[in-house]
Design brief:
Order of helices and strands: EHEHEHEHEEHEHHEHHEHEEH
Strand order of the largest sheet: 8-7-9-6-5-10
Number of helices: 11
Distance between the termini: 13 Å
Structural class: alpha/beta
Largest sheet: 6 strands, mixed
Helix content: 40-55%
Shape: elongated
Number of strands: 11
């Protein structure tokens, strides 16, 4: 795992704790990295340290380590997200695959009966239909890789009914309707017919049949069985969602930080859709959350 701008005490504490999970390449200002390791009382003697004085150069170097196969995952350190993502998206040396990138966070909460995943809190500002489908597919693929079968995907909005004044509800309704249609064709006529009769990109239907999806759903409808019962909502996803897909980055980021800082949830996050996983944590995240993110990146 290659870390860009690794001069972060919490990050290096997580790196030491993860030494049995992965080998690390730490890229950045060597002097600052050593000072951060001393502050964290972290032993980084097993890590390879690569000196890059400038944050932009450090991000470019770290991305190249991954792109050229010398590392299997990328991690953000003490650097702004926009700088590392510019290196990731570089057409010549970056980590593009043709898919849209998206962020997936995982939370363990005492108030919820299983792990809860949230997308997208960090990458896509205002996803349209195509981007939203990529977000769903990226998230489902990662959750399936974690061993969760038939995950339940909730498309979040402010309410559970379509409203022309609230575009997020209409987008969610559109995606849910397409998902139902894809499933119907898959069950009645076989997967191949989806592509020919509905004239869609095969990637759009790649994971159809491997998850449940419903929307629009307000947050309470997605995670609270009692709310579903009171409102009379008939949904296999309602009250039991695994993945919460937010309508835009504002909603996703606010939900992420509310769960992390107000609910004190154990959490981690990863960017999906690139050549390799990208561990993209907030600089304010704790050492434990960064360790969780490292584990999530390895598993996904």
């Amino acid at each position: 795992m290659c870390v860009a701008c690794a001069d972060d005490a919490n990050l290096l504490e997580a790196v030491e704790a993860a030494k049995d999970m992965a080998n690390f390449i730490l890229v950045g200002n060597t002097e600052k990295i050593r000072r951060a390791a001393d502050e964290a009382q972290a032993d980084i003697s097993r890590a390879q340290v690569v000196n890059e004085m400038d944050p932009v150069s450090a991000c470019n170097t770290a991305v190249q380590f991954v792109s050229f196969g010398m590392a299997q995952a990328l991690m953000k350190g003490q650097v702004d997200t926009s700088i590392i993502m510019k290196a990731v998206l570089n057409k010549e040396s970056g980590m593009r695959t043709g898919k849209k990138l998206s962020h997936l966070a995982v939370f363990e909460l005492p108030t919820y009966h299983k792990l809860l995943f949230v997308a997208d809190a960090a990458i896509n500002i205002a996803p349209d239909l195509d981007v939203m489908i990529d977000i769903i597919n990226n998230s489902v693929e990662a959750v399936l890789a974690l061993g969760i079968t038939m995950p339940k995907v909730a498309l979040l909005a402010a309410k559970e009914k379509s409203d022309p004044k609230m575009p997020a509800t209409e987008l969610a309704e559109n995606i849910a309707a397409r998902n139902i249609l894809f499933n119907r064709f898959r069950l009645e006529q076989g997967t191949g017919s989806i592509y020919s009769q509905l004239e869609v990109d095969p990637d759009e239907a790649e994971f159809v049949g491997k998850y449940h999806l419903d929307g629009p759903l307000a947050l309470d409808n997605a995670i609270c069985k009692e709310s579903v019962k009171i409102k009379g909502i008939d949904s296999v996803v309602g009250g039991d969602a695994d993945i919460l897909v937010c309508p835009d980055i504002e909603a996703g980021n606010i939900l992420y930080k509310a769960l992390a800082f107000l609910a004190n949830a154990k959490h981690g996050g990863v960017v999906l859709g690139a050549k390799r996983p990208i561990i993209l944590t907030s600089r304010a995240d704790s050492a434990q959350s960064k360790l969780n993110s490292i584990a999530l990146g390895i598993l996904s």
